[in-house]
Write a structure and sequence with these properties.
The structure holds two protein chains of two kinds.
Chain A lengths: L25 H16 L6 H28 L11 H4 L1 H21 L3 H5 L5 H34 L3 H31 L4 H29 L12 H11 L12 H28 L5
Helix pairs in contact in A: 1-6, 2-4, 2-6, 4-6, 4-7, 4-8, 6-7, 6-10, 7-8, 7-9, 7-10, 9-10
Chain B lengths: L12 H11 L3 E10 L2 E11 L3 E5 L6 H8 L7 E6 L2 E2 L4 H7 E4 L11 H10 L5 H15 L14 H13 L5 E4 L8 H16 L4 E6 L2 H4 L5 E6 L2 E7 H7 L1 E7 L3 H10 L4 E4 L2 E5 L4 H13 L3 E8 L2 H11 L1
Parallel strand pairs in B: 3-8, 3-9, 6-7, 7-8
Antiparallel strand pairs in B: 1-2, 1-4, 4-5, 9-10, 11-13, 11-14, 12-13
Helix pairs in contact in B: 4-5, 5-6
The chains are: A mainly alpha, B alpha/beta.
Chain lengths: 294, 325
């Protein structure tokens, strides 16, 4: 467009101008929806009130990482005061509140306020809508979980800890962050997409994930006390411990839980994680096939 | 507006495009039928809609919204076919949706974003690059009459402002054709006038053809060049607005005596008159009817309280059209 930007405050009625510029295709539209949804998960481009919750949670998530780095620096320790692989598990409540508050904002909003009819009446494919929203939600979670790990990693290097000792665990934890983001994103979106009322969706997501974590914790205690054979597999019950299992069995990270034994354990945990991701993606696609314009 | 003479079945897309270019028909339907289970929403509809502002009129549940969804390529048809801008609704829905704008009847705006952010987002969803999306959004919001408030979250908007945002998102990508579903719904009389004025401008100033629906004929006759009336999904009438309103004109007369006295006198003078409460409705065949009414009232020594032209209501249009078939 060749019109210069007006510098004065006067509004000139220059009449309607037709648009004969570029109209981009399917991949641009998908990418735009992804970017806008990812920003939206942190309240960017939304009202001031929408920014409060995600920003606070992001700060809370990163704070312990900063503390760990600070203590390591002050005490001149020769290793980090906390470890990478179980960081996200220890702060699972923060991640859980984030997904519970932002999954509804990502998809329930469009259903509840019938924004879907505007999306569907545009050259945007239903399939692409789901892909963009899923990717955006998982990315938002990845930003939340990867940021503190990276702060710890960066801090460790600044403090002068040997990089070769830091990298393996950092990378294992980052792989775990990718997996937990995909799993929680999928589970959260599925619940939010079938619960258009925001309040119900928030409650449903918190309940499901908390119950899973609670049941997992209790059974783990019992199995641990009785030293049952099934103990290592109880991690499958909650997304957070499931990721911990993949990290330790497949990637060889240290774990506060009994590690799943050998190749079988690694296989079971990895397949379970991938099934959750693929399953929730499939359910979402199925759900949006039946969303109508009105 | 006649029954179109498209070659039947599996028509070559290029033929359709040629047809579109030659005739200027924007929307063509042929025996279009849509059933939801036992309910027939659109029934054997054959209509040919040209450019300009076209009103689609029907009572609630007449199938207006269903027809629009079919034309957007979002609902599979049960029978028949339809093209929009020469594109087949069954196979080229995406291409149609890139070229038309749609303003739904119901509320469809998220409360937590500003009008500017929302319309920019929706422009991007049509494939406009960011810079163009921003420029077009600023332009179109100004055209629909949203100024300072466009930076505030939509949740705090009045109905009138929401309708403007809905209209803006339908026009932001500069479509060739806009579907406006009941755009005056929920507006007060002043808001209604503004919206109708805007709709007229969309065609005259913006050069965008409009298909606008309403259940009120009186409302659309002001802005439409053509009127398509449907009832129970079937075509009742498709003609120019002038034709529709001409046959639907009546003059309402009120005098200071009981209405039946006047009605009898007018009938004796050769007019078709009937009593409606305290008023007498006189069918206006031509302008001489005014003179007859005036003369009759004066001759009988009645006090004339008012005399005004009135359009027939939808129900009467349906009755006339129904009996004519």
């Amino acid at each position: 467009m060749s019109m210069p930007t007006p510098t004065s405050g006067v509004i000139h009625d220059i009449g309607y101008r037709h648009y004969d510029g570029e109209r981009r295709g399917r991949s641009y539209i998908l990418r735009s929806l992804y970017i806008d949804s990812l920003k939206g998960a942190y309240g960017l481009g939304r009202s001031a009130r929408s920014k409060v919750m995600p920003m606070i949670l992001f700060a809370v998530m990163c704070l312990p990482a900063g503390v760990i780095v600070t203590i390591t620096a002050v005490t001149n320790g020769d290793e980090l005061f906390g470890d990478y692989p179980s960081y996200v598990l220890n702060l699972q409540l923060v991640v859980l509140i984030f997904i519970a508050s932002q999954a509804p904002a990502t998809v329930s909003r469009d259903l509840r306020f019938r924004v879907m009819s505007l999306y569907l009446s545009r050259p945007l494919e239903r399939v692409d809508y789901v892909i963009a929203k899923f990717a955006a939600m998982a990315s938002a979670l990845f930003v939340l979980t990867a940021a503190p790990l990276t702060i710890m990693f960066g801090g460790a290097l600044v403090v002068g800890l040997p990089i070769t000792e830091q990298i393996p665990d950092y990378l294992r934890a980052m792989a775990g962050a990718v997996l937990i983001s995909l799993m929680l994103g999928g589970i959260g979106l599925v619940i939010a997409a079938i619960t258009p009322r925001r309040g119900f969706a928030v409650a449903a997501i918190i309940t499901v994930l908390l119950v899973l974590a609670g049941v997992q914790g209790i059974l783990q205690e019992i199995a641990g006390a009785e030293s049952l054979d099934i103990a290592p597999y109880l991690g499958l019950l909650s997304p957070f411990t499931l990721v911990l299992g993949v990290q330790s069995a497949l990637l060889g990270a240290a774990s506060p839980l009994p590690s799943p034994p050998g190749a079988t354990g690694a296989l079971v945990f990895t397949v379970a994680a991938l099934l959750i991701v693929a399953g929730s993606y499939a359910i979402l696609q199925l759900r949006y096939r039946s969303v109508s314009v009105s | 507006m006649g029954v179109n003479q498209l070659p039947h079945r599996r028509t070559d897309a290029r033929l359709l495009l040629l047809y579109f270019v030659v005739t200027g028909s924007l929307i063509v339907t042929e025996g279009l039928t849509k059933r939801f289970g036992p309910v027939t929403a659109v029934s054997d509809l054959t209509v040919n809609i040209g450019s300009g502002v076209v009103g689609l009129i029907g009572a609630n549940g007449a199938g207006k919204s269903t027809l629009i969804k079919i034309l957007l390529g979002l609902l599979p048809v049960t029978k028949g076919r339809a093209t929009v801008l020469g594109l087949d609704v069954a196979s080229e829905g995406t291409a149609i949706r890139a070229r038309v704008g749609y303003m739904p009847e119901h509320d469809c705006l998220p409360p937590d974003v500003s009008a500017t952010d929302f319309v920019v987002h929706m422009a991007r969803m049509c494939g406009l690059p960011m810079t163009a999306a921003r420029e077009r959004t600023a332009d179109i919001l100004r055209h629909v009459g949203l100024y300072e408030e466009r930076y505030r979250p939509i949740g705090g908007y009045s109905t009138g402002m929401r309708q403007r945002v809905k209209l803006a998102q339908a026009l932001v990508h500069d479509p060739q054709l806009a579907f406006l579903d009941e755009p005056t719904n929920g507006l007060d009389p002043a808001g209604r006038d503004d919206m109708l004025g805007l709709i007229a401008r969309i065609n005259s100033d913006f050069g965008i053809s409009v298909l606008v629906t309403s259940h009120l004929l009186g409302e659309l006759e002001r802005v439409c060049d053509h009127i398509v009336v449907i009832d129970a999904g079937a075509l009742l009438r498709a003609s120019s607005t002038a034709d529709v309103t001409a046959i639907s004109q009546v003059v309402v007369v009120e005098v200071d005596q009981p209405a039946d006295v006047l009605a009898t006198l007018l009938q004796a003078a050769g007019l078709t008159a009937r009593v409606v409460g305290p008023l007498v409705e006189v069918e206006l065949r031509d302008d001489s009817a005014y003179d007859v009414v005036r003369d009759t009232v004066v001759r009988a020594g009645l006090g004339l309280i008012r005399m005004e032209r009135r359009r027939h209501r939808m129900a009467e249009i349906f009755a006339t059209a129904g009996s004519a078939q």
